[in-house]
Design goal:
The structure holds two protein chains of two kinds. By secondary structure, chain A is mainly alpha-helical. Chain A contains 26 helices and six strands. Chain A has helices at 12-48, 57-64, 66-99, 105-112, 120-131, 136-143, 156-184, 188-196, 201-229, 233-238, 244-251, 260-283, 305-322, 324-334, 350-357, 359-392, 398-406, 413-424, 436-461, 464-472, 477-488, 490-505, 509-514, 523-532, 537-563, 567-570; strands at 49-50, 53-54, 100-101, 301-302, 335-336, 346-347. Chain A has a two-stranded antiparallel ribbon. A two-stranded parallel sheet of chain A has the order 3-4. In chain A, strands 5-6 form a two-stranded antiparallel sheet. In chain A, strand 1 and strand 2 (53-54) form a beta hairpin. In chain A, helix 3 (66-99) runs parallel beside helix 7, helix 3 packs across helix 9 and helix 5 crosses helix 7 (156-184). Chain A is globular, with a radius of gyration of 25 Å. The termini of chain A are far apart. Chain B is an alpha+beta fold. Chain B folds into two domains: 3-227, Rossmann fold; 236-361, Beta Barrel (OB fold (Dihydrolipoamide Acetyltransferase, E2P)). In chain B, 24% of the residues lie in helices and 35% in strands. A six-stranded mixed beta sheet of chain B has the order 6-7-8-3-9-10, with helices on both faces. Chain B is elongated. The chains are: A mainly alpha, B alpha+beta. The interface between A and B is medium-sized, with 27 and 36 residues.
Chain lengths: 573, 362
């Protein structure tokens, strides 16, 4: 072989890569500074600053106001009970999925994820129709003489539980995905080693399985708690208004008249960030690395007859109950003149036609697609660059960056949206004039953690030697990213992008608070407005809700196919 | 091209990975860095490749200081331990990747691709993806990819560690053949001493980030500088003792718990009477005597009880125990002694030549 001198290499590529890294980081820091940190600081400061300077008066007023204190406890209870019920439902399902093989497992596992495709507030529409005083359930029970007079399912005292019921049905898949991933990640030899030592099944679950899946559980629990604690849509549509998010939503209209609300906002921020920080730093150090050679050879046993007797009823009944809100929404959307009967006497597709002829719904679909596409695009670009910096530690402050991009998870959407209204009213970003820039920014800031986590999971799967091999060949970092890394993590990026897109499409808090004029309404605000309309509004809202379910199903199924068991990684706090 | 590492130090946090390492790698040599896990050999290779920055020190390729150059600017070829083949590219695309980056003409790319494929005998697999190749074939693709860019220096990071024993032997021959054909200065990192002893023109042994000894394989085996080296390269028996000075024949006299020994080892060290020293005796240098020996031959004798044996095919390794020894004494016997019936717990007398005892300072 003849000997040649190494060919010349283009140095510019290296500096371009560094410049790109710094631009991405600066852009992210600016984005988070102006649209996460500043609005938060502003609303927090309003809780402490009165007309005459610093004060704690608003807090003493808040703590002496029983009604508002009950909002705090109601919301906390919703968060707590939803987390507990999600855990109770998900733990056995996750064990079944990760450890056993049984017929129709793939189908049943996919069906278990269906609740993810609908925001719970859409389910609230269907639930109201079914469980109303003269709704389908009562009519059915009356017709068959099970009851003599209608039961008031949605009486004031039951509303609290109705919210928890809907939140649980929507959020348990997050816990299920987290626990399944955590259990599947455990090397089966650890369990076998304990068996050989003589541990009983219960001891193995307590001493081996639980400590190893605890970090996964806590990640899921954190997301579920914060989500249900601060969810606006469900209590709003079901009519349970004694919660913090609904109070804050109503406060937007009289921001300057009720400063006690700012104290309440501060309490919410304090609770969510404390839980977030506690879970992040209190438990993360206990994440155990599997020492095995790989995690793929997890032992999946064929379920014995006894286990099948347990598995099928558990899984099928969970799916059946979880699908109630979806089914009710779909039935409502097709019903024609449904009144005083258990099921509609006639069915029609006219509300679907109305969706595409009604200005409000058309605007909603069009706006949401546009806003979501732009927000997702921003997330994908930033997410890839940030994940690269975080995983490859190419900049000195990558750990700080990792913590920073995750902070939107700790700040509820309702707080952030409220912060935007407070911070940007009267500026060129005033949501009352044109909320589009703020909506897009709010969507991308809140979904950035999903995208970053998705890309991080992709980068972590790629051995850094694949990139080093390219660099040794003479490629710049940017060229390597384009030619080697991104093609290898495309599945993760598409999955992360689809999730960002779908969750943005069905965002409730930002959309309901920031979009104040018809022409800027996104999908969810259109559904909400249609629902409030007299006449056929409820039916058109259901049809629009059903269409949104289809959009979200396509995205979630796509992500699930692309990410497989890794999907659980996205829902880690 | 000659490669020089001058006072390279690498510190990770509080860990000293490479400690003031200086090394000269001759042009066209196949230089091995050998050492146990965590000794700093891979870090050294990565610093040389430009994948890591050294905390201090300089690297020269020929007379050119490349310390501040990035990996891409150094013009090296590298084979990674896991081969690092890009799974979404075929064999052809993997090999062409580096060539295209250099904006070479299509014809040159084609020629270099063909030459690399021929050299590594991969012509048949050109359109396959890495996942469709066996471990040995993947290793050859990694080598072909590294060679295609005509590197001035080839770096190999434990390239055979993922292969089975038989394939490893085959690939050793392959790499040696390619090195003979190309004469590219090659730095090869491994923890497998057999690989280093059989293929290397030079070996550097590292321990705790430091160079312990550099030299041709035979020198390292026969004249190790330290007990660690004697123990690390090949197998040896180490015995501690007291230095008694030189006898009438100018041989070193050492007193051990097993008796007195004489060594003709020409050490650069000056030993002082009464100081503690260490003896190294290779297992294959022992002989055993069945018949009683003449008086004048009764030097450097050990008495030990046979404990156990391990059959290695071409040889057999025996273990002898003695109340004065912490470890068993190892002795390797070859075919001629294979018919001896070794009886457990029976006492045997072993002898070693004066020239086969290496003496170290402790």
């Amino acid at each position: 072989m003849d000997r040649l001198k190494p060919d010349s290499i283009n140095k510019i590529g290296y500096y371009t890569a560094k410049v790109f890294e710094y631009i991405a980081v600066s852009l992210t820091i600016l984005l988070l500074l102006f649209f996460l940190i500043l609005p938060t600081i502003l609303i927090v400061s309003k809780a402490f600053i009165g007309p005459e300077g610093w004060t704690l008066e608003y807090f003493s007023l808040l703590f002496s106001n029983n009604l508002q204190m009950s909002f705090i406890s109601n919301s906390l209870m919703i968060g707590l009970f939803t987390t507990i019920s999600c855990t109770i439902i998900s733990l056995p399902l996750a064990i079944f999925n990760a450890r056993f093989e049984y017929r129709f497992k793939s189908l049943l596992s996919a069906l278990l994820l269906v609740p993810l495709i609908m925001p719970p507030f859409v389910g609230a529409i269907g639930i109201q129709r079914f469980f109303a005083r003269f709704g389908a359930i009562n009519i059915f029970l009356l017709d068959h003489n099970f009851i003599q007079s209608p039961i008031n399912w949605l009486a004031d005292e039951n509303m609290f539980w109705a919210v928890i019921f809907l939140e649980t049905l929507h959020l348990y898949p997050i816990m299920y995905l987290n626990l399944t991933a955590a259990i599947a990640n455990i090397d089966p030899s650890l369990d076998e080693a304990a068996t050989i030592c003589g541990s009983s099944l219960l001891q193995r679950y307590k001493n081996i399985l639980w400590p190893l899946i605890r970090p996964g559980f806590l990640s899921g629990a954190l997301i579920i708690f914060i989500w249900s604690f601060t969810d606006l849509g469900t209590p709003l549509l079901i009519g349970y208004h004694e919660t913090i998010p609904v109070f804050i939503f109503n406060m937007v209209t009289d921001i300057n008249e009720n400063p006690i609300g700012f104290a309440l906002v501060f309490i919410v921020i304090l609770i969510t960030t404390s839980i977030f920080i506690f879970s992040k730093f209190g438990f993360n150090e206990k994440k155990y690395q599997m020492m095995g050679r790989g995690h793929t050879n997890v032992s999946v046993k064929k379920a014995s007859f006894l286990f099948k007797i347990i598995i099928y009823p558990t899984v099928i009944s969970t799916i059946s109950i979880a699908l109630i809100p979806h089914i009710t929404v779909i039935i409502t959307s097709f019903s024609d003149g449904w009144f005083m009967t258990a099921l509609p006497e006639k069915f029609t597709t006219k509300y679907y036609y109305q969706v595409f002829s009604h200005d409000l719904s058309l605007i909603g679909i069009k706006n949401s697609i546009l806003f979501s596409c732009l927000a997702t695009f921003l997330d994908v670009i930033l997410g890839v660059l940030l994940a690269y910096i975080i995983v490859r530690k190419s900049l000195p402050f990558s750990q700080f960056l990792d913590a920073l991009v995750m902070t939107p998870l700790a700040l509820p959407g309702i707080i952030l949206a409220f912060g935007y209204v407070v911070s940007y009213t009267g500026t060129f970003l005033d949501p009352l004039t044109n909320p589009i820039p703020l909506l897009i920014i709010a969507y991308s800031v809140r979904r950035l953690p999903f995208m970053v986590r998705s890309a991080v999971s992709g980068f972590q799967q790629i051995n850094s030697s694949l990139e080093e091999a390219s660099q040794v060949m003479g490629a710049s970092k940017l060229y390597t990213l384009r030619k080697i890394t991104i093609p290898l993590i495309t599945a993760n990026l598409i999955a992360g992008g689809l999730l960002c897109f779908s969750y943005t499409m069905l965002d409730v808090s930002d959309s309901l608070i920031l979009a104040m004029k018809d022409q800027y309404y996104p999908l969810t605000k259109s559904i909400y407005s249609l629902y409030l309309e007299q006449g056929s509004g409820e039916f058109v809202a259901s049809a629009l809700g059903s269409i949104s379910m289809i959009i979200l199903s396509v995205c979630i199924i796509g992500s699930s196919v692309l990410l497989g068991k890794k999907m659980g990684e996205l829902f880690k706090g | 091209m000659k490669v020089s590492l001058k006072n390279i130090t690498k510190i990770y946090g509080k860990n000293l990975a490479v400690n003031n390492l200086s090394l000269e790698i001759d042009s066209g040599s196949m230089h091995f860095i050998l050492g146990p896990s965590g000794c700093g050999k891979t870090t050294t290779l990565r610093i040389l490749a430009g994948l890591e920055n050294s905390t201090s020190g300089k690297i020269f390729f020929g007379s050119k200081d490349v310390t501040s150059l990035s990996a891409a600017e150094r013009g090296i070829g590298m084979v990674f331990q896991n081969y690092a083949l890009w799974p979404h590219m075929t064999v052809k695309q993997n090999i062409e990747y580096g060539l295209k980056l250099k904006n070479l003409s299509k014809e040159t790319i084609r020629n270099r691709l063909d030459a690399s494929l021929a050299m590594t005998r991969l012509e048949k697999f050109i359109n396959r993806l890495p996942s469709q190749l066996s471990g040995g074939q993947q290793q050859r693709v990694a080598l072909a990819r590294a060679l295609a860019i005509r590197p001035s220096i080839l770096l190999l990071d434990e390239p055979l560690s993922n292969l089975d024993a038989k394939l490893r032997t085959e690939m050793r021959d392959n790499i040696s053949r390619i090195h003979d054909e190309t004469k590219i200065t090659t730095l090869y990192v491994t923890h497998d001493q057999k690989e280093a002893l059989s293929m290397g023109t030079h070996i550097t042994v590292m321990e705790n980030g430091k160079e312990i000894q550099t030299g041709p394989p035979k020198d390292l085996y026969n004249r190790p500088k330290t007990p660690f080296l004697a123990k690390f390269i090949g197998e040896t028996n180490l015995l501690e003792g007291e230095y008694l000075g030189r006898d009438d024949n100018n041989l070193h006299k050492i007193k051990t718990s097993l008796g007195n020994f004489s060594s003709s080892y020409d050490s650069k060290n000056i030993f002082v009477k009464g100081e503690r020293v260490c003896l190294s005796i290779r297992p294959e240098d022992f002989r055993h005597h069945i018949k009683p020996m003449q008086n004048e031959n009764q030097k450097n004798l050990f008495k030990g009880k046979f404990y156990s044996s391990h059959f290695h095919g071409e040889s057999e390794q025996l273990q002898f125990s003695s109340p004065e020894l912490k470890n068993h004494l190892l002795m390797t016997v070859y075919k001629e002694s294979a018919n001896t019936k070794w009886k457990k717990s029976q006492a045997y007398t072993l002898q070693v030549e004066e020239s086969d005892i290496v003496v170290f300072k402790i």
